[in-house]
Amino acid sequence: MLYQLPTGKTVYLTLEEYLELTDQDIQYLISVDYGESILNPFTGSSVEKPESQKYYDFDYIPTDDELNNIPSDDTPFDDIIDLSDSLEI
């Protein structure tokens, strides 16, 4: 995560580092002039990252071998619905 120091400079911290951050740590970072000045408010955001797109081939027809390897359950909910205790009329 990006954390902005009181001087306006920004540093990258992990979540664990941020949770363990004390006032003394912040004062030390300021005293050594650590960090960088970021002018773009969208730096490191998902706005700049390229979007990964998934490709779906809807024209694909599986072969018989591929269809035979798929396990088929004729009754997929047998383990959920127990009809053995049902009442007979």
* Largest sheet, spatial ordering of strands: 1-2
Mean pLDDT: 78
Largest sheet: 2 strands, antiparallel
- Distance between the first and last residues' Cα: 66 Å
Q: Into which percentage range does the β-strand content fall?
A: 5-15%
Total helices: the number is 3
Provide an overview of this structure.
This protein has a two-stranded antiparallel sheet. It is α+β, with helices and mostly antiparallel strands. 21% of the residues lie in helices and 7% in strands. It starts with a strand and ends in a 21-residue tail after the last helix. It has a domain at 1-39. The mean pLDDT is 78. It has helices spanning 15-19, 23-31, 64-68, and strands at residues 2-4, 10-12. Strand 1 and strand 2 form a beta hairpin. The chain has three helices and two strands.
List the helices and strands and how they pair.
Elements: E1 2-4, E2 10-12, H1 15-19, H2 23-31, H3 64-68
What's a quick, concise take on this entry?
The protein is an alpha+beta fold and 89 residues long. The protein is 21% helix and 7% strand. The protein has a domain at 1-39.
Which features characterize this protein?
two-stranded antiparallel ribbon, single chain, 3 helices, alpha+beta
